[in-house]
Recover the amino acids of this structure.
């Protein structure tokens, strides 16, 4: 009588076990074994209702072994059915994986990584990455069809704003599937961070001061309360007046993707060569050094501000140029990372079955993306929320800006090497963003040093596809690309986003773009927001008055009046702290595939090689930063994570609670916050 040894593992999540009954059915190429109960009180949980955030704390996974005897050899084990049922109380269970040892010693692995809730049956295919053409058995083809149908019913599209990329059709985070909700170890720590930081601002009185700033020193005092985070802001406060630091931020600031080479002076550019000759020095001229285009007619009420002007005139002009908060917070940050990341996540869940190799490859880069974006819709971009209050852009204006940003988004701009070439900044010196980003892009797409021509993304594609005909013939892949083109870019052919992929090279490039967006690009435009924005004069979220119509009459008060008031600044500062913070002790580093979804040797070898290349990039960045006065560290692998919102869970919930507590309390004595949780690791240094 054939004997099968079965091991079932609970996920690495606190309270992921269950006291409900779990049974298993083995399905082989020659038949199936009748349902067998593993055990009652299987890896006991709490007996609570389906998972809440407190159920998501990590813990070493637990395993249960059993022996199944069958009347006949089942052949190759291709499918597992997990049955969960209860007599009384519901206790949801998260399954990590199942391993089956056949009578001949063959080990079959079934990665699961999903919650089972209620009385239900879940089917899990054997873990080898398989496309539709790889399924020889009819039962596997049916399973694939049923799984996709269920996924497409669970993850449907809606238009949050008609002219924006489409998003997940849920009304609140409570409607989200348990498998896309957040990790509460981060939520718990982040709650502590938020309340800790928010309370300090509250105690300092900044959030309760709807008044103008009185001095530059007063502005500087606000970040002195954020212990451990003041190092770079202090550097900024010392150097923000300097022209070199002003220009540095166009290359290596929060919005490093907007600078481009201008080769021709526009007809309406009113600056004359003699105006700037002394600033440029010998051996060059205005035409060669032109970097910024203005559309303006020179006149008495429309002055051209120059480096040689009076101190406050020139500072005001530079501060106005730095006040691109709305552009960064609406276009570079949310549109090009969060919103596009949500599109990539939804299409992957809708169009790729869990056994598909590209599902296994991509899903680690979408952890909690849907959850965090759903919260952002609730607390950031509605009337009266942070963007509306702090950016100087009305909700109507915000909708228009994102619409125009989407209309201008192109495939070229999302593919880093093409974007660098298109903007003409290939040889721009001291462009740390370009240098680090290109290293990461190449590590993702094509690493050719030390591995005999092997690479990560191209290696994965070559292993599972091999030839171009396999790419063009993969119906699930083509449906995935069409879904992105249709719902992410609204079918706009002028974007250059492909609606089909026909070759191995095209697929490798597209996948690299997706992973790069979620990993490196997000880190580059997110992680420095507090560092460069904490000192208000360097990067105000808005300017409330126009530039002076006449030069030579500005003084300090002309600078203090246009910038946001104290309470608005404090709210923005709390947002920047949270958006750019990292937590200590909880790291999902780039290239880390904590869920062992791949079961073949080749993908694991490629992942290890990829991780080795990432470590080399980290070491190069660390060595460069060791000698730098101001470290560019935002794509350092010590500062980055594997997906867009790995560190952001629940911080929007803080804004909601803080706003409600302040609104409900009639005076400052009643406006109190409770402390909880632990503090983060703020280890960045300026020198």
């Amino acid at each position: 009588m054939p004997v099968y040894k079965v091991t079932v593992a609970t996920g690495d999540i606190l309270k992921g076990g269950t006291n409900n009954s779990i049974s298993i059915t083995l399905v082989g190429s020659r038949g199936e074994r009748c349902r067998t109960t593993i055990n009652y009180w299987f890896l006991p949980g709490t007996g609570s209702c389906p998972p809440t955030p407190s159920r998501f704390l990590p813990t070493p996974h637990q395993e249960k072994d059993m022996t199944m005897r069958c009347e006949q050899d089942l052949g190759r084990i291709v499918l597992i059915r997990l049955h969960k049922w209860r007599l009384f109380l519901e206790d949801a269970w998260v399954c990590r994986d199942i391993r089956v040892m056949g009578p001949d010693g063959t080990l079959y692995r079934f990665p699961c990584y999903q919650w089972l809730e209620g009385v239900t049956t879940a089917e899990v295919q054997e873990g080898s990455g398989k496309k539709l053409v790889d399924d020889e058995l009819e039962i596997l083809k049916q399973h694939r069809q049923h799984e996709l149908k269920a996924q497409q019913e669970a993850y449907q599209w809606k238009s949050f704003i008609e002219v924006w990329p489409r998003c997940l059709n849920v009304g609140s985070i409570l409607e989200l599937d348990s498998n896309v909700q957040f990790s509460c170890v981060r939520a718990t720590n982040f709650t502590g961070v938020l309340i800790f930081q928010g309370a300090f601002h509250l105690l300092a009185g900044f959030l309760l001061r709807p008044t103008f700033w009185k001095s530059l020193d007063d502005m500087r005092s606000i970040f002195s309360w954020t212990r451990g985070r003041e190092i770079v802001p202090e550097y900024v406060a010392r150097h923000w007046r300097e022209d070199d630091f002003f220009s540095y931020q166009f290359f290596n600031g929060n919005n490093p993707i907007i600078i481009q080479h201008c080769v021709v002076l526009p007809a309406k550019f009113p600056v004359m060569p003699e105006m700037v000759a002394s600033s440029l020095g010998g051996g060059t001229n205005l035409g060669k050094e032109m970097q910024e285009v203005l559309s303006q007619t020179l006149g008495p009420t429309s002055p051209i501000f120059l480096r040689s002007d009076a101190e406050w005139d020139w500072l005001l002009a530079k501060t106005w140029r730095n006040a691109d908060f709305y552009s960064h917070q609406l276009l570079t940050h949310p549109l090009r990372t969060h919103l596009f990341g949500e599109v990539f996540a939804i299409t992957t869940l809708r169009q790729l079955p869990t056994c598909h190799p590209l599902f296994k490859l991509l899903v680690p880069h979408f952890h909690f993306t849907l959850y965090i974006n759903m919260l952002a819709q609730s607390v950031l971009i509605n009337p009266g929320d942070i963007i509306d209050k702090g950016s100087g852009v009305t909700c109507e204006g915000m909708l228009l800006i994102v619409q125009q940003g989407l209309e201008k988004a192109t495939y070229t701009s999302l593919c880093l090497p093409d974007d660098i070439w298109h903007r003409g900044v290939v040889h721009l010196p001291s462009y740390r963003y370009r240098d680090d980003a290109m290293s990461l892009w190449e590590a993702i797409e094509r690493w050719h040093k030390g591995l005999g021509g092997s690479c990560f993304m191209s290696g994965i594609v070559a292993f599972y596809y091999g030839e171009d005909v396999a790419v063009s013939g993969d119906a699930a892949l083509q449906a995935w690309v069409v879904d992105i083109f249709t719902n992410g870019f609204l079918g706009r052919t002028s974007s250059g986003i492909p609606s089909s992929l026909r070759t191995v090279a095209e697929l490798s490039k597209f996948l690299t773009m997706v992973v790069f967006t979620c990993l490196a690009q997000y880190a580059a435009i997110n992680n420095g927001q507090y560092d460069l924005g904490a000192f208000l004069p360097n990067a105000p979220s808005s300017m409330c008055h126009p530039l002076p119509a006449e030069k030579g009459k500005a003084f300090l008060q002309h600078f203090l009046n246009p910038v946001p008031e104290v309470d608005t600044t404090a709210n923005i500062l709390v947002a920047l702290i949270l958006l750019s913070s990292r937590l200590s002790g909880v790291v999902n580093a780039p290239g880390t595939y904590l869920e062992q979804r791949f079961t073949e040797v080749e993908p694991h070898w490629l992942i290890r090689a990829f991780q080795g290349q990432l470590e080399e990039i980290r070491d190069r960045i660390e060595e460069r930063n060791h000698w730098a006065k101001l470290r560019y560290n935002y794509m350092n692998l010590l500062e980055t994570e594997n997906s867009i919102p790995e560190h952001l869970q629940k911080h929007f919930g803080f804004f909601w609670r803080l706003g409600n507590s302040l609104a409900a309390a009639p005076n400052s004595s009643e406006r109190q916050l409770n402390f909880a949780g632990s503090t983060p690791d703020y280890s960045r240094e300026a020198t």
